[in-house]
Amino acid sequence: MLEVRNLTIEYENITTVRDISFTVDNGEVYSIIGKSGCGKSTILNAISGMIGRNGKITSGTISLSGNPIFENGKYTPYLKTVLGRELAAISQHPDSSFDPLFTIGNQMTEVMSVNERISKRDAKIKGMELLSRLHFSDPERVWDSYPHELSGGMCQRVAVAMALSNKATLLLADEPTSALDVTSQAEFIRQLKEIVENDDLAVLLVTHNMAVARALADRTGFLRNGELTESGGDIIAAAAG
Ligand SMILES: Nc1ncnc2c1ncn2[C@@H]1O[C@H](COP(=O)(O)OP(=O)(O)O)[C@@H](O)[C@H]1O
Ligand SMILES: [Mg+2]
Fold it and tell me: Which residue of 35, 47, 132, 186 is most buried, as measured by CB atoms within 10 A?
C-alpha cells in the first residue's frame, strides 16, 4: 500500500528525520510512536506533500500502491490524483478537517462529488449510511449540523466517515485522539478499529500515546532522534529496550 524508503527530511538544513523506511500494508494499522517534537507530523506532511516552505525531503522515495509519490528529489503528478481520494488525512485538531461555514452534509456531498457525479439526494443517502457506520444514533442531525455544533470526538468520527465517502484506502492519522477526553478516545479507537477490520482501509497512525498505538496497531515503529526502529512483537518491551 504505502512504501517509504530511506526518507530524510530537513528544516533549514537541520535533519529532523534520518533515513527512515517502513511500509503500511493493505488494511493494516501501522503506528509510529515518538515523543513530542520528534518528527511524527513531519513524516505525515511529507507523505501528503505538505511539508512547508522551509522543509525539504533530501533523499528517499515514497510510493502508494506501487506508484511513486516522491522520487528523484521531487513529488510526482500522481500525488495530486490520490490526495483527498485514496489518500485521506485526519489531524489532531478535530475541527480543522472542516470548513466552519458549511454543514457536515454540504461538505460530505462536496467530497463525494470529487470522485463521481452524484445527486444531492444520493449523497445524503450514502452519507447517512456512513454516519450510521460510525455509530451516530441521529445521522440526520449530524448531517444538518455545522462543525462547531459537534464535539471533538464527533468531529473525528465524521472525518473518518468523510474519508470513507471518498473511498480512501490509506488514512494518515496525526494524534487523532489527543484532543479528546478519555471516554471519547476509547469510543473513537473502538470505532476506527471496527472500520479497519471491515473495510479495506489502512491507517498510518502517529502518536505519543503508547496505549492508543497498542489498541490499534498491527505493527509499530519507534521514532527516536530522527531514526525509526521497528518492533514486530511486544511494543512495551521494545519501547523499554
Ligand atoms: N515548518 C517548520 N520549520 C522549522 N522547523 C520545524 C517545522 N515544522 C516542524 N519543525 C521542527 O521539526 C521537529 C519535528 O516536528 P514535528 O514533526 O511537528 O514533531 P511531532 O509531530 O513529533 O511533535 C521539531 O523540532 C520542530 O520544531
Ligand atoms: Mg505532531
Answer: 47
